[in-house]
Amino acid sequence: MSRTTTNNVKEGALFKQGAGGGLFKRKNWKLRFFELTLDELRYLNSAGEVKGSISMRYCTTDSIEIMPDSDRPIHGGTIWRIAISTPCRRLLVACASEDDMEAWVDALNYVADYNVKRTHRNMCKISFASETTSEKAFDPQQYPRHHSSIATTASSDCVALPSPLA
């Protein structure tokens, strides 16, 4: 794969922790060029070839974690580390400075928040084959009401639903 031109949210050099697949299972740090788009975070080698990527479509802001300082020196990496967790893998990167780390965290959180909102919008769209429009407003009259069995919790945003097994 080679590098393609896209609309990057952020790009720059980061250290990437290896998978540790060698003979001694050592996780080396390699300098890679990263490109963050609304859909993925990809990293390239010095020749500009894509070496790997992770999908950002299902990441949330909880998927982005600033790692605590390590007591041991990191060979090739720095103390300003970020973990990005996806359903398929966890990527650990290190930044050159604290300011750089904060800029990457801001960009990653922006993309995660964007994708959560995009997913929510897509889930709210209901398409009916008999309708000419792609969206239909929710009609509560079409569904049975069980207001008496819904208990609100301390948080106004949360509702505890009755168990289907009860």
UniProtKB/TrEMBL annotation:
A single GO CC term for this protein reads: early endosome
Provide the alphabetized UniProt keywords.
Phosphoprotein
**Key word Phosphoprotein present:** yes
| Top-level taxon of origin | Eukaryota
SMART domains for the chain: PH (SM00233)
One annotated GO biological process: retrograde transport, endosome to Golgi
Coiled-coil spans are none
What stretches pass through the bilayer? Answer: none
Q: Which residues form the PH domain?
A: 7-113
The protein here is known as PH domain-containing protein
**Species in which this protein is naturally found:** Aphanomyces invadans
